[in-house]
Design a protein that fits this description.
About 40% of the residues lie in helices and about 15% in strands.
Length: about 280
């Protein structure tokens, strides 16, 4: 789930001309895209997934994201819950550029100017962690979307990491979704791991420090981080799809979460160190 960090004021160090220009382009795309998506959602709801994907691709192009996809993405005919690690606010346009899907986000994000509106138009599900009963409500909505053939992205760590270490995957929402699906097929769904790896800039692999600068985690403020992202060169990202996991008859929710976490850790270890097997906690 996307982490809670409130947008900051624009005060601070001077932005470069290039970064300022990129902010202007993003603002222009948003000013056109938000009302256009609202109109499409009203008059042609079945086509409402098209504009968000185009929007995310444009954002990635403006920022300079160069994405390489490995592995096989979800089967469109399967009800798939995509379980990914979480590194930055940039995760959403990076993943969203790959295909039609929706995200699970924390409720605070729905109130953010601009960002909240875009998230709502992409049919993001906002979960209120302060309300224990709200998990069941969101799980029911997720189950409906999965049953109708949609793909939903869950950031299973529950917060953002430092770009290197994969945090433990939480299984509670996986279990709630399985229960909400009901007795049909024993509530079985496909869980597909997705490793989101920010590997460096300019085609040069970065170390832990470089990956931490690209990550948005801990007490990092949004505007300084946005400046860091926009002021640097092209960002190299790898999206590594793991093998699908059948949660239900074959694996429990806890086992499915464990296997998904292991898949993401193995992908991170391979790309960051060249090794094929993970240790208990770290990827480097």
């Amino acid at each position: 789930m996307m982490s809670r960090k409130d947008p900051d004021s624009l005060q601070g160090p001077r932005w470069s001309a290039g970064a300022t220009f990129k902010v202007g382009l993003i603002a222009a795309v948003s000013l056109v895209g938000i009302p256009a998506q609202a109109l499409v959602s009203r008059i042609a709801p079945r086509r409402s997934h098209v504009l968000p994907q185009i929007f995310h691709r444009m954002i990635c192009a403006v920022i300079g994201v160069r994405c390489v996809v490995e592995g096989s993405p979800p089967d469109p005919s399967a009800r798939t819950l995509i379980v990914a690690n979480h590194v930055s606010w940039l995760d959403v346009p990076v993943i969203g550029s790959t295909g039609p899907l929706s995200f699970i986000a924390k409720s605070e994000i729905s109130e953010w100017p601009g960002i909240g509106a875009m998230a709502r138009l992409q049919r993001t599900l906002f979960i209120d962690r302060a309300r224990k009963t709200h998990t069941a409500v969101i799980a029911s909505e997720m189950a409906q979307r999965l049953s109708s053939g949609e793909s939903v992205v869950l950031f299973a760590e529950g917060t953002t990491g430092d770009g290197t270490r994969i945090l433990p995957f939480k299984s509670s929402l996986l279990g709630a979704v399985k229960e909400a699906l009901g007795p049909e097929d024993d509530g079985e769904i496909t869980v597909q791991p997705l490793a989101l790896l920010y590997v460096g800039r300019h085609g040069i692999p970065g170390g832990r420090a470089e990956r931490a600068r690209l990550a948005w985690y801990g007490d990092t403020e949004l505007l300084p981080h946005l400046k860091e992202i926009l002021s640097g060169g092209p960002i190299d990202v790898r999206l590594v799809w793991g093998e699908p996991i059948r949660m239900g008859r074959e694996h429990s929710r806890k086992e499915a979460a464990r296997l998904a976490e292991l898949s993401v850790k193995q992908a991170a270890l391979k790309h960051f160190t060249g090794r094929e097997r993970t240790g208990p906690d770290r990827a480097d």
